[in-house]
Design a protein that fits this description.
Elements: H1 2-19, E1 25-26, H2 35-42, E2 47-48, E3 58-61, E4 67-70, H3 91-110, H4 123-126, H5 129-144, H6 154-165
Parallel strand pairs: 1-2, 2-4
Antiparallel strand pairs: 3-4
């Protein structure tokens, strides 16, 4: 646990050294049973994304009972599927999958159940020309939807969630609470 605690602290420092600002969220990618507790213990994050279990952010609690925001990540809408068996073989498959997913989520939202769609991207994967073409097609589709979609960062999602769905304040949102 001390090694992971040190890795989190080093990650924060490297981010500050390289970008000049502290990160507001944390994604380890391969969490273990201690990861979320260590991220909360570090104390400087608005959220963590070491979860794959929901379509929307949700609240959990720190050991001290304070709210902690989880903004789930995705392995489904993710270019890592170019590198996995039975994954995407070319950019058109990636684009079609993302467009179909977004179209379905938009329909759910129009029917009163808004969702969040994350797209995981890695320059070494989607950055290849044939794959990049698929990403370009998807982004053009997103742009064509105008104000029906909000393309943003996890930091902005976290700010929105704190403002509009903080536990015990306003309209609520997901009240799920588990570690």
């Amino acid at each position: 646990m001390d090694v992971e605690r040190e890795h989190i602290a080093r990650s924060v420092q490297i981010h500050k050294d390289v970008l000049g600002v502290r990160p507001v969220g944390m994604y380890q990618g391969k969490p273990n049973v201690n990861t979320r507790r260590l991220v909360m213990e570090e104390g400087g994050f608005l959220y963590d994304s070491d979860a794959y279990d929901d379509d929307l952010p949700y609240w959990t609690t720190t050991p001290e009972g304070q709210p902690h925001l989880v903004i789930p990540y995705t392995l489904s809408e993710n270019d890592m599927r170019f590198a996995s068996p039975n994954g995407f073989s070319h950019g058109k498959e990636f684009s079609t999958y993302l467009k179909d997913n977004l179209t379905y989520l938009l329909e759910e939202g129009r029917n009163g159940s808004p969702k969040m769609m994350s797209v995981g991207l890695h320059c070494r994967l989607v950055g290849r020309p044939g794959r990049a073409k698929g990403l370009e097609e998807f982004l053009e589709f997103v742009e064509s939807l105008g104000d029906d979609v909000w393309v943003t960062t996890r930091a902005e999602i976290a700010k929105h969630w704190y403002k509009n769905h903080y536990p015990g304040v306003g309209s609520g949102g997901s009240g799920r609470s588990s570690l």
